[in-house]
Amino acid sequence: MSNNEKSIGEEIYSAISRSPYTLHSFAQQMNIKLKILESYINNEEIPEKKTITKMNKFLNSKIRYN
Could you report the per-residue pLDDT of 3-18, keeping only the tens digit for each? Predict the structure, then answer.
């Protein structure tokens, strides 16, 4: 991963921070537990492609899936 490429967790976090959602409200919107969202942001878990697709529906910026 080059220096200008963000990890999936960094992409999720920056997309949420640019949206009108807080982490808590976004987790509710996605119908997932806050701990799971935090594990995605901390790169402890990688979300499935369908989860990222659902996230992109709510966020203005698009998260890419590797």
Answer: 468 899 999 999 999 9
